[in-house]
Each structure stands twice: as structure tokens, then as C-alpha cells.
Amino acid sequence: MSSTKVNYPLVNSVRQSPPIDVSIPYDAAWVRGKTFVITGGASGFGAGFLEKWAANGATVIIGDINVSKGDELVRKVRKETGNPNLHFVHCNVTDWQSQVNFFKDAVRLSPHGGIDAVVANAGVSDGVPMFETPVNLDVAEPPKPSLSTIDVNVIGVLYTTHLALFYLPRNPSSTPADPSSDPEVTPRDRHLLLLGSVASLSPIPSQALYGTSKHAVLGLFRTLRSSSFVHGVRVNILCPYWIDTPIIPVLGRVMLAGSPLGSVNDVVDAGTRFAADTRICGRGLVVGPKLKVEQHENGELSLVDSKEDRGEERTAWEVYAHDFEDSEVFARRLVGIMNKALAVRGWIGWVSDIVAAARYGITSWWRR
Predict the structure, then answer these.
(1) 210 is catalytic
(2) Which residues share a beta bridge with 312?
């Protein structure tokens, strides 16, 4: 991780770690002995996380709506890794009680009786873009649009997050997340990893619901990382670019023809950095295809030919790295303007507002 010191007190007060230097290696073995809970774990990134963390000695409990696929995957990875602490539990993320049962089962299956990390991974895409092309709305009883993408990607993630914020602080022998911790000697954790997307950052034509849902996940991340320290929970987010997973429908693959796709392995590697390194708090990584780039003094990136000696190969870039610094500058300016406005109005303005507030309260009570 970068050793850059941030001079803004807001960053320190929310206990956010410095921007990530992805060129500094981490040790995947730091996940050993920890218990991970993953929604949507039967395929895609979830399956990749299971395989990687199981191979490094972690306990992993995956939940998915696809029972046969989830059960088959766990059996296969158990055999390949020799790790007996791998489990599948049926979980429909859109069903609150199903998620409650999933978390209770995870605690029961955990060797130490707690959960170190929760990965809110379950997600779906829009498929055929029907939302933006409504039909038959002029009939007597027009059909309502399907919002299943919102149900899975927003409601489901909120359910997962709500349960995570209950169970993580209660993880036995864990201590509040701390950017100064030593991951080599920190056996317990309190970590929530959210799965966003490049759609969290930019529009994707014909994917209105998916884009809306992933913007919501990003908003959840940006909000939680400013307050989750109260519970001692560290919150991070992954925003994959177009990655070759089942979530990309046929139409999407046609639209992306000729464009480079990212690798699941690179997303898993970035997720493992978050999972293993307990010092990382409140950070986000965009993961895409491997490119050789050169960063200029103004922060802009330019593509470099792979045969040239300059530049570096990268698959991950930090997003919203200086969010709190920027927001604090804005907040200071805004508060400064408000203070000047208050000074101009003076005591007469203050008394006038108090009288108005009292009048409003009395009127509201009288109208009951």
C-alpha cells in the first residue's frame, strides 16, 4: 500500500486507508483461517473467490439460487484443495428470510463461530432491454415492468449489507478495522466487499436497470465507508470492466465484439488483495483487461505499445481515491459561505427564525 500521508482530517476521522499501490505485492495466505460468506457464489467471480481462498486455507460458505451448480462446485473445490471447510447453502438474495437463514448457517458452519468477511457478489444483468422500449401501455390494465434486476442487485445487496453490519461486529475475537493493522498477525477481520461495475461509473446503452443498480451499489459504498468505522467494519468495492462471465448476455457479447475483455482471474486477484490485506479500508478498484499505460504529470493515462520499454502493465486502477479530500474542500467552502450568510443576517435573523420555528410547531399541533 502507498505510504502517502493525507493531510485532511476527515480522511483520518473515518479511518480510511491511503490509496492502494497495486504494484506492491500482498500475500494471499493472509486469508488462512478466516471465514468468508459469498452470495452468488456458484459461478463467475463468486466461484473464482471460492477457489482462490479455499486453496489458501480459508473457510468459504457460498450461497446461490442454483443448488445443483453450487453443490457441484463446492464438491469439486474440496477435492482439488483438500480443504474440508467449504460449504454451499441455498440462498435467494431477493428473499429476506432466505438470506437470514444463509447467514445463520454460515455462523454455524464457521470453525470459530463467526464471519470475517462478507462478499455481496450476487448480481444479474438486464438481458433483453425491455425497460426502455415499453409496449402495450395504452390498454386498460397495462403490465408493470419487470424490476428483477433491481430486486437482485439493489434489494438483495441491501439485505446482504444489513446482515453483514450485524454479524461482522459480533465476529468472536475480532477487533475494529484499522488501517495500521498487520495482516500477517490479524487472524480475525470485519470486512464487507461490494461488487460494483464499470456501470457504476458510466452509462451503458440499453442497460438502464443494470446501470441504475450498480450506481446504487457505488452510492452504498461511498456512504458506508464514511460511517462503517463506527462498527469497526471496513468496506471496499470492486468495479469490474467488461469481464468474460455468464452475466454478459448474447446481445452484450455482440455489442462488445472486437473489444478487449478482462479476466476473471484479475478480478479475483484484486478481490483477494482486499480480502487478505486488513489495512485496506474504504477503497475501490476498477479491474479491466491488461493494458500497458503511462501516467502523465496531470494524471492522464496514455496507452503504450507493449513492445516499448516505457510504461507499466496494469489491470487495476483506483476509483474515487481522493473522494474525502475533495468533499472536505467542498464542505469547507460551503460551510464558509453559510457562516458568512449567518454573519450578515446577525441576531435579528436568528431571532426571526426561532419565532418562525415556534409558530410552525404551534400551527402543526393545532391542526392535528
Answers:
(1) yes
(2) 293
| pLDDT band for position 368 (cuts 50, 70, 90) | low
Which residue, chain included where needed, has cell 458506508? 224
Residue-wise DSSP of 47-111: HHHHHHHHHTT-EEEEEES-HHHHHHHHHHHHHHH----EEEEE--TT-HHHHHHHHHHHHHHST
Catalytic one among 159, 167, 210, 241? 210
Give me 19's grid cell.
490509496
- Which residue in the list 159, 214, 241, 320 is annotated as catalytic? 214
Q: Which three cell numbers stand for residue 131?
A: 425497460
Identify which has the larger pLDDT, 258 or 133: 133
Handedness of CA 227, 230, 231, 233 (dihedral sign): positive
Tell me the sheet residues that pair with 39: 63
List, for residues 305-326, the tens digit of each pLDDT value.
Answer: 767 777 677 788 888 767 666 6
Asked if the model's pLDDT at residue 26 lies above 90, the reply is yes
Residue with cell 510504461: 311
pLDDT computed for residue 365 by the predictor:
77
